[in-house]
Design brief:
- The chain is an alpha/beta fold.
- The protein has a single domain, classed as Alpha/Beta hydrolase fold, catalytic domain (Rossmann fold, 3-Layer(aba) Sandwich).
- About 35% of the residues lie in helices and about 20% in strands.
- The longest helix has 17 residues.
Length: about 300
């Protein structure tokens, strides 16, 4: 343990170890990485899952490490199947929410001891945690960062974008069972249609990808149809745990007012609007965002 004269911040006062955990979801076998602080012996567990078409390495370990150094266990999981079978990067909200439920169940009783659970989500994951918290009454706290609501996302797109998205999605949905799946870029080029616009959010999204990642910039187009119908923030009124909602004031995917409206529906909500872009809490705004989150967690879920 650091001596009293140690100059590290309070957020870095614990060491941690990591281990891989597998779990079974309704959508198939999944895997995640557990970060365990050296103390306390039975800390709360922060469960973190990725955003739209992303993987768990896209900036999430940085949060998990910071939470672990603050005395919380952290479990970062992937929606990607363990066996690699199935479409990569498919946006399937129903299956991903099932993954969230299974991940929570996997870590709720670590080492045979009941743990307090914190849900943490960014982007589409921020929408997922609102939905899961609304369903489950035994969540200690929820943190939703730049939460993405599919309906609000669709309403912010141009008619031309929606026409191309629906056309590609329908063709993929019809062709996939026949082995003729159609993919689109997750992040489009300067003059290329993609799920996310290149600037500014798409580029910030790509900047989060580790150099050694085998991730491919493509997603089955049918996922857009599911995304457009997905309204997790409509469940906000059913959330009964302390919740921190962080909106990106310069969000080009979903208006920050969408997150503010959701926060107003939660009885015990703290709302914060940062002057940043949608993906900046994973990148340039990480230190600011994580400081607010640690302060919130310390006030509602003490790790000791």
């Amino acid at each position: 343990m650091p001596a009293a004269t140690d100059t590290r911040s309070a957020a870095d006062r614990f060491e941690f170890a990591t281990t891989t955990l597998a779990f079974e979801s309704e959508a198939g076998a999944r895997r995640g990485r557990l970060y365990r602080p050296d103390r306390p012996s039975s800390p709360p567990v922060v469960v973190l899952g990725p955003t739209v078409a992303a993987e768990s390495t896209f900036g999430y370990p940085r949060y998990a490490e910071r939470f672990a150094r603050a005395g919380y266990a952290a479990f970062v999981f992937d929606h990607r199947p363990v066996d690699g079978d199935g479409p990569r990067n498919l946006v399937d909200p129903a299956a991903q929410v099932a993954d969230w439920r299974a991940a929570v169940d996997r870590v709720r009783r670590l080492d045979g001891e009941r743990r307090r659970i914190v849900l943490w989500g960014f982007g589409l994951g921020g929408g997922h945690v609102i939905r899961v918290a609304a369903e489950r009454r035994r969540v200690a706290a929820t943190v939703a960062v730049s939460p993405l609501d599919g309906r609000a996302f669709a309403r912010g797109r141009s008619p031309g974008y929606l026409a191309r998205a629906v056309t590609a999605g329908v063709r993929d949905r019809l062709g996939a069972p026949l082995g003729r799946s159609r993919s689109i870029p997750v992040v489009g080029g300067p003059d290329e249609f993609g799920l996310l616009p290149r600037a500014p959010t798409g580029q910030a999204y790509l900047d989060c990808i580790p150099p050694a990642s085998d991730w491919h910039n493509e997603t089955p187009a049918r996922g857009l149809l599911s995304l457009f119908r997905y309204r997790p923030l409509a469940d906000a009124a059913d959330v009964d745990c302390p919740t921190l909602v962080i909106a990106a004031g310069r969000d080009d995917l979903v208006p920050p007012e969408t997150a503010a409206t959701a926060a107003e529906c939660i009885d015990d909500a703290t709302f914060l609007r940062l002057p940043v872009g949608h993906a900046d809490p994973l990148g340039d705004a990480f230190e600011t965002a994580v400081a607010h989150q640690l302060a919130f967690l310390e006030s509602v879920v003490d790790a000791r």
